[in-house]
Amino acid sequence: MKALAAAILALKHVDRAGWLRVGIAQPESVAAHSFGVATLGLVLCPPELDRSRVVAIALLHDLAESVVGDITPHDGVSIDEKRRQERTAAAQLFAGRPDLWALWEDYEQDRSPEAHFVHELDKLDMALQAGAYASEADTAQFVESALKKLRSPALLSLL
For the segment 104-147, what is each residue's pLDDT rounded down to a tens digit? Predict the structure, then answer.
């Protein structure tokens, strides 16, 4: 349990690598992003989904980055290797907590409607943050990336 608590605290100090790459001097942390995704889930969750599950998945979805860092497509790490590193880290973090492992795995495998919704919220949060950073750097690529993956008309309307 100590390792999990330490990872939660460490996530506050992991800067979002994409924002650093485009020159944002003081980017949000991965923890701030996870909070944003969770809060969006809390307020935007459609009634047919389990809101508590959405928020829980959102809070956990990037926790492995407290161990492996925020690996982006620009880091030269293959998607398979990134997934392997994150899976290994998550397995260690959630050892003894099969309930949390199941939520993380649900997100990774995009198994449930709640996990799918969190994937979309992840992109929405990125696009909204890109808008907030637009005066500091060229962040259009982040909005374009989100638009390619967002499918929900309700979420798209927020952009």
Answer: 999 999 999 999 999 999 999 999 999 999 999 999 999 999 99
Among the listed residues 63, 149, 45, 51, the one whose alpha carbon sits nearest the alpha carbon of residue 104: 63
Please, what CATH class does the domain formed by 2-156 belong to?
mainly alpha
In the chain, where are the structural domains located? Answer: 2-156
Distance CA 35, CA 90 (A): 18
Cβ proximity of 72 and 17 under 8 Å: yes
For residues 55-65, one letter each, b for 16 or more C-beta atoms within 10 angstroms of the residue's C-beta and e for the rest, the string is bbbbbbbbbbb
The number of residues in the chain equals: 159
Gap between the Cα atoms of 125 and 143, Å rounded? 10
Which residues are CB-contacts of 37 (< 8 A; sequence separation ≥ 6)? 58, 61, 118, 121, 122, 125
Compute the distance between CA of residue 68 and CA of residue 154 in angstroms, rounded to an integer: 33
pLDDT at 1: 81
